[in-house]
């Protein structure tokens, strides 16, 4: 099972108002284990970076001006993503920007059926708690001391650790193996039950000889208790 953990940095919050994606970071997981394969790219947004956005991720106009356009690197990104499920924190935000960039290139959007949102998972596991990436890293003891500013690849690396914990932790492989073994046992038992012949109910009535022997034995008893008057 291949999954891609990814995060984006942008010029703002709304691609419909002209905001663009300026960075994407991706981590490959196979069977919920990082393989070491990553994808990371910066993009020139062809617009000025708002000060509020720059304060979050530190990506300035000067830094981004010589970076390629998204359209010039999109094939490399799509080759890395393949048809895998895509995991993101508050995934609709990242999917919205990714699909907006694909649409601008005249390419098909990524289907929402591929989306896995770790915020939704966290809400199910910890209702009423804080579900920011920072808060969840604290809850699960994930070290983020090196995270001074937001960065797509760094946040994807943190999210990969968090996603593994949300899905059962480092021992998830053992859990899956145990469940598969249990499922196999259930199937075998069901098959055995299905072919088991139906037997008629057994009759446990004493025979005439057994009744005669019992009466002879009772006759030898002196003053049995059940014959005494109450």
UniProtKB/TrEMBL annotation:
Q: Which cofactor does it need?
A: Mg(2+); Mn(2+)
Class of the enzyme per the UniProt entry, highest EC level: transferase
Q: Does the keyword DNA repair apply?
A: no
Family annotation (SUPFAM superfamilies): Ribonuclease H-like
From the UniProt record, which GO molecular function terms apply? Answer: DNA-directed DNA polymerase activity
The protein's Enzyme Commission number: 2.7.7.7
The catalytic activity, as recorded, is:
DNA(n) + a 2'-deoxyribonucleoside 5'-triphosphate = DNA(n+1) + diphosphate
Under Pfam families, the record lists: RNase_T
- What does UniProt give as the signal peptide span? none
Exonuclease domain: residues covered: 2-172
Where does the source fall among the domains of life?
Answer: Bacteria
**Annotated keywords:** DNA replication, DNA-directed DNA polymerase, Exonuclease, Hydrolase, Magnesium, Manganese, Metal-binding, Nuclease, Nucleotidyltransferase, Transferase
Which InterPro entries does the record cross-reference, listed alphabetically? DnaQ, DnaQ_proteo, Ribonucl_H, RNaseH-like_sf, RNaseH_sf
Q: What does this protein do?
A: DNA polymerase III is a complex, multichain enzyme responsible for most of the replicative synthesis in bacteria. The epsilon subunit contain the editing function and is a proofreading 3'-5' exonuclease.
Listed PANTHER family: DNA POLYMERASE III SUBUNIT EPSILON (PTHR30231:SF41)
Q: State whether it acts alone or in a complex, and with which partners, per the record.
A: DNA polymerase III contains a core (composed of alpha, epsilon and theta chains) that associates with a tau subunit. This core dimerizes to form the POLIII' complex. PolIII' associates with the gamma complex (composed of gamma, delta, delta', psi and chi chains) and with the beta chain to form the complete DNA polymerase III complex.
Q: Which NCBIfam families match?
A: dnaq, dnaQ_proteo, PRK05711.1
- Please state what the protein is called: DNA polymerase III subunit epsilon
**Gene designation:** dnaQ
């Amino acid at each position: 099972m291949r999954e891609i953990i990814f995060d984006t940095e942008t010029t703002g919050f709304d691609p419909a108002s002209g905001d663009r994606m300026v960075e994407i970071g991706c981590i490959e997981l196979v069977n919920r284990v990082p393989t070491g394969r990553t994808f990371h790219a910066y993009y020139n947004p062809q617009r000025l970076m708002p000060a509020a956005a720059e304060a979050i991720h530190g990506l300035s106009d000067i830094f981004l001006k010589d970076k390629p356009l998204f359209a010039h690197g999109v094939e490399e990104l799509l080759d890395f993503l393949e048809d895998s499920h895509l995991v993101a924190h508050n995934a609709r935000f990242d999917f919205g920007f990714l699909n907006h960039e694909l649409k601008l290139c005249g390419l098909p959007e990524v289907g929402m059926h591929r989306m896995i949102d770790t915020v939704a998972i966290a809400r199910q596991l910890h209702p009423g708690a804080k579900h920011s990436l920072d808060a969840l890293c604290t809850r699960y003891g994930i070290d983020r001391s090196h995270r001074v500013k937001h960065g797509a690849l760094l946040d994807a690396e943190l999210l990969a650790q968090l996603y593994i914990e949300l899905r059962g932790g480092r021992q998830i492989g053992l859990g899956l193996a145990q469940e598969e073994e249990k499922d196999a046992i259930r199937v075998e038992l069901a098959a055995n039950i299905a072919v088991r012949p139906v037997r008629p109910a057994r009759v446990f009535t004493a025979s005439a000889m057994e009744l005669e022997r019992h009466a002879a034995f009772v006759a030898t008893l002196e003053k049995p208790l059940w014959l005494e008057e109450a």
